[in-house]
Amino acid sequence: MGTGKITPGFDYSTIGVEEIKDEVEKFKRQAEEESESKGLFTVKLASRWIEQAKKRPIPKMLFAEFWFENELCILFADTNLGKSALAVQISNAISSGEPVKAFNLEGERQKVLYYDFELSDKQFEARYSEKFENHYFFNKYFLRAEVNPEKSDYRESGFDSFEKYLYNSLEKSIAETESKILIIDNITYLKDTTEQARFALPLMKDLQGLKKKYNLSILALAHTPKRDLSKPLTRNDLQGSKMLINFCDSSFAIGESSQDKGIRYLKQIKARNTEIIYDTENVCVCQIGKPNNFLMFEFLNFGTEREHLKQISENDKSELENSIKHLLQTEPSLSAYAIAKRLCQDESKFNSFKVKVSRIVNRISNS
Fold it and tell me: 59 by DSSP, 3-state: which?
């Protein structure tokens, strides 16, 4: 490569041919790395990227096909469906090396750092005890973190915003605990709003940056807005900007079953290390409960998502159609949008309701 570089103080007369070859190869690699660096970018032949990737370990499952090592994964669900309970159960499995029943764990036992922005220590205790007695014993590889109220003033720590103080504290705790598995409960705490792309994109960049810098696997919990329980879960049900789902590596959701208040189902929404296995035709059906001193998801079977969706009865359909006919008889010029506005009581369901009304209006008009 003709770099002309000589290692200072290195006595080349004392080494053999193989050692000289190794030193030459080292110079070649350094020269190649310098030539591949293009400011923000590293530009290499596609074949060199493959050669580099072959030296890295194949990502292992942390929670079946839902979450793999070195992924930034988002788990989302409506309030009170058990996101935190499942996240703690996954954390306990990884930190103990014993998988959640029916969900593969390929990774070795390792330290988990769980950032809890939702529960107080007393609320956490209540979930993992029997009426505050007979407490569950968590192993030493499971670390839980919560905000210290006595140190919540960012100005006292020399920062010009809480956000910068938060990220500095995140990075410090990651580095000092040497944890490679992070659970963030809940992602909305990291940003005042994730509704707009200008806020969500920097958040995802920051998390991806931490992931790459420290070789992390991150599971971030998020909410869904109020949704129509008769509709399948999709990526559009993740609350906030689409940047969240676009820039994560994988995502899965917890759905509420109409069959029983204690039944949940898990559905894959996005995957990069595997094909989508747990789709609408093959969801994981679980029961959430607390048999002793540990709130948990217990696997029941596989099923279809439609079995658990709220069914609209024929009586409900008939009532809606009659209401629309009555409005059109009294005010024939009413649009489908105006009718939907009058009949819909829940703004979060307006868009899907408007579609139903539009179909009925078209059918009445053509009959």
Answer: coil
Angle at 263 between CA 261 and CA 264, to 5 degrees: 120
CA distance 228 to 153: 40
Amino acid at position 358, single letter: S
Confidence check: pLDDT of 2 > 70: no
As a whole number of angstroms, the distance between CA 273 and CA 69 comes to: 10
The pTM assigned to this predicted structure is: 0.77
pLDDT in tens, 7-17: 566 565 666 77
E strands of 126-180, at which residues?
142-145
| Region 52-56 average pLDDT | 77
193 pLDDT above the threshold of 60: no
For every residue of 206-252, DSSP letters joined together read HHHHHHHHHT-EEEEEEE--S--TTS---GGGSSS-THHHHSSSEEE
- Distance between CA atoms of residues 209 and 233, nearest Å: 29
Non-local CB neighbours of 210 within 8 Å, separated by 6+ positions: 170, 171, 174, 182, 216, 218
**Cβ–Cβ under 8 Å, residues 74 and 238:** yes
The residue that leads in pLDDT, 236 or 85, is 85
234-264 residues labelled b (16+ CB within 10 A) or e (exposed): eeebbbbbebbbebbbbbbbbbbbeeeeebb
Cα separation, 147 vs 151, in Å, equals 8
Q: How far apart are CA 143 and CA 179, in angstroms?
A: 9
String of b and e for 272-281 (b: at least 16 CB within 10 Å)?
ebeeeebebe
* Amino acid symbol at 359: R
How many Cα neighbours within 13 Å face the side chain of 262?
11
Residues 188 and 222: beta-carbon distance below 8 Å: yes
CA neighbor of 358 nearest in space, from 345, 313, 343, 227: 343
Residues 220, 73 contacting (CB under 8 angstroms): yes
CB atoms within 10 A of CB 71: 22
Cα 243 to Cα 240: distance, rounded to the nearest angstrom: 8
Q: Which pair of tokens denotes residue 285?
A: 């059906």
Alpha carbons within 13 angstroms on the beta-carbon side of residue 189 total 17
